[in-house]
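From: lab user (bench 3)
To: helpdesk
Subject: output format question, protein + NDP

Hello, I'm new to running complex predictions and I'm not sure whether the block I got back is the full result or only part of it. Here's what I submitted:
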Amino acid sequence: MTGPSSSANQYAGSGRRSVAILGATGSIGLSTLDVIQRHPDRFEIFALTASSRVDEMVALCRQHRPKVAVMADAEAAVTLRSRLPADLGVEVLAGREGLVAVAQSAEADTVMAAIVGAAGLEPTLAAVRAGKRVLLANKEALVMSGALFMDAVAQSGAELLPIDSEHNAIFQCLPPALARDMTGAGVRRILLTASGGPFRNTGLSSLAGVTPEQACAHPNWSMGQKISVDSATLMNKGLELIEACWLFNTSPSQIEVHVHPESIIHSMVEYVDGSVLAQLGSPDMRTPIANGLAWPERIDAGVASLDLFALGRFHFERPDLERFPCLRLAAEAFDQGGTSPAVLNAANEVAVAAFLKGRLRFTDIPVIIEEALSALPSTSATDFDVIFDKDRESRAFALERIGRMAV
Ligand code: NDP
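Helpdesk reply: Thanks, we reran it on our side. This is the complete output you should expect:
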């Protein structure tokens, strides 16, 4: 799926990869820093970004001494500037302009795209357009803008490497030169695995009353709140289905979701000769992050060896689309094409935020998304402005609709 590797180390004078981490204070950002600090000979940190959590950013700047720190929130940037000692030499930038500036800076050759949600699209796109190695964790950016995003990758020659564990697994199971040519590679289908989330065994009647704390208590993975709720509704798998279609140039009909509660097999690729290749590992995001940072080499990620004797067995189930309609809605949005995935994503972000604040029931998340999809029918996604407009429209629709719903 990658473009020509024109970006590889072309900027880093020291011979080390120079990395900008968008979303450094988050779960993926911190795991990325953990891998990077194990390899000071290979990587240097150019920039760290966050939204508003200044205390966390101060600590990261003291520890990792980036050249630039960006706070998306302008007031937070002012506070950060006042709290960083001058001798640390960290330049502080603010807002969307600051995020875009570090993402496209000639001083970075590698950008970890780990901002959560649609807010990540603009800086991730800036990194793509500047031809960087882009490590894509921020699946929402690709889901929203699909073909436009992949066209930008092709035009700039950026190296796009998947960090989502499932997509990284699929990537590892495909011949790299044919990662976007399923027919040429002889692929019959992709088996996309899913943990099933914390409510895998919860009955439909109990789902309406689940709390944000329960939804965020993922059985296997430690993640940010938004993706944790997405995992609980199976919207995460829906977003991943769309992400896989764009990354590997395929369609939902060629992808089958397998619920695999142990989260050890991160996905599989079945070939026409009957071979099934799988990538296995402990559920630890440092593995795909290390894979993306060092690709095509391998580096220590600090991840313990897999103990298959202790695990004993693997289990597989079909996803239950009646209890978890978000997966169906995502597949439908992809089939509708155009602006529908952007509408789906935006309505989901608003609904999840409302659920986390106790303003929406868990089971109303798919209701809001379905209503948004039918109220805002798909139009052709001719450019990124169309996508951003639809994102705003869908947010406004979902907010208004939630406002009229009593919890
Ligand atoms: P977190 O919520 O833990 O972290 C989000 C990061 O984005 C934080 O640094 C946050 O800053 C920053 N951020 C939030 N809002 C904005 C904004 N409006 N503008 C700029 N920055 C912002 O998320 P995760 O690390 O869990 O997830 C990040 C992305 O990676 C998501 O797209 C997710 O789907 C994907 N992903 C995550 C996995 C995981 O294991 N966590 C696995 C696979 C994919 P601040 O701290 O200041 O709020």
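A quick orientation on your result: The longest strand covers residues 43-50. Let us know if anything else is unclear.
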